[in-house]
Amino acid sequence: MSLSTLSHVLLWAFLLVQFVLLFTFTRLLVQFLNRFRAAGVKVEEEGLSVNTSAPLFRGKDQHGNLVKLHDYLGKEVLLVFSNESCSVCQSLLEQVAPLSVKTIVVSGEFYSTAVKEKYSQFTFLHSADIVENYYIKKVPTMVLVDETGEIRFIGNNTQVNEMKSKLNSLHAVAG
């Protein structure tokens, strides 16, 4: 192969790599911008709201079992988004532990075996995708999903009593 042919091949390979990088960057930029919506003059970040359907998810729990939100239709589910390294999150787990509601702890980090054993009544999911799909920006965050799959409460660690009240009102309506 002549030097001229080799330089042409390298030039085309370089251009192909540039197009792939440009396409990838554009795709990432579009995904980022889609998380925002224009509302009049200001821009608001997209997120979940109460009385909307909870995004469905599935993931493996601490025992390797497949967990799907859809499997809990007919029951209330409390999703607690937290991290083990967060002391406020640990306090929240202690506050919700005695509740009689299915609790799923979702984290982008892995929880230690000791914490999983301490809260053996909880289901632990490690999934950055679920955290992203629920638009979680800070932890701890609680999301209460009713028996129909609708979000009935979104709050943080300072709103445990409000979440308990909402849970009690759901039980009162169902009972």
Automatic annotation (TrEMBL):
InterPro entries: Thioredoxin-like_fold, Thioredoxin-like_sf, Thioredoxin_domain. Residues 48-172 form the Thioredoxin domain. The lineage of its organism: Bacteria, Bacillati, Bacillota, Bacilli, Bacillales. Keywords: Membrane, Transmembrane, Transmembrane helix. It comes from the Bacteria. This is Thioredoxin domain-containing protein. The chain crosses the membrane at residues 6-30. Pfam families: Thioredoxin_2.
